[in-house]
Amino acid sequence: MADEGSSSSFVATFDKLICEEDSGTDENPLYSSQDKQQVSMSMQRHGSSQNPYRLLTVILAVMAVILLAINIGLGVYYNQLTGGQQTIKDIHSEVAKLQAGYNAAIQDKIDAKKQLDRELGEQKRLQWELEHHTKRSKDYENQIHRIEDEISELKSLIPLLSMGCRHCQPGWMFLHLRCYYFPFYDLPRQRRWKEARQFCQKLGGDLAVIDTPEKTVSITELIKSHHDPERSIYQGAYWIGLSDVDQETIWKWPDGRILTESYWNDGEPNNDNDEDCGATYPRNNPFKAWNDAPCNMHMKWICEMEPHDIS
What we know:
Layout: H1 2-27, H2 33-167, E1 173-175, E2 178-181, H3 193-202, E3 206-207, H4 213-225, E4 238-243, E5 275-280, E6 290-294, E7 300-301, E8 303-305
Parallel strand pairs: 4-7
Antiparallel strand pairs: 1-2, 2-8, 3-8, 4-5, 5-6
Helix pairs in contact: 1-2
């Protein structure tokens, strides 16, 4: 900007000198035309010698304009740069806000996940508790049904017991005009077939003879009603008075009669492992209630004897 002012002052001074020379020439009558011609030629040479200064002045002026434009551009650029920095600051501020919001959202998600896990854990616990109470309820229902069945069974046995009191010894049951002894409950020890028969004989009877469909149905239902369904049917087996000890495959009753009406299970008797004695089991089908078994096995047993008086 200072260079531009100096150039303008120089041009103004130069123009003033030219004007003064021109005015001095016009006012001085002492100069002849020849002198004027010489002066004119001298002025032309002087003017031609001043042309480089004018060119320099123009160049300087152009340079000044360029510098001014550069200054203006730099100022604009600086303003833009300053505004850009503010924009960057604003962006950083927004990013910081977004980051804070994101962190808060992540924390909320973590808290929600923890809460969900707690709720799921509580739901699982309640489900387990419900399953437990449901199972207990079913167990209670099964117990109620079992007790009701036992009550019905005991009611059905009342006439038999009353008849047994008239015709049978205490602890025996009157059934199909015969007296039967059933050790339904577990004894201190069970007995082998021979020992069970000796027990019955000491009481005046013998091992039971099941030789009619009515007997096998009644006795099977009776021992089945006293059998725990959660235990194996082999734990509810009873010796009866049937064996082929004297002659293999020839099954006889204690009184020597040969077996004619039988109620063997499918595939029985198979004489597996010297199975020479017969037993009845609490099966659903009373016509498949029998198995042969080794005579030295320990089982419960059924005794049978004549009633006292049936008249």
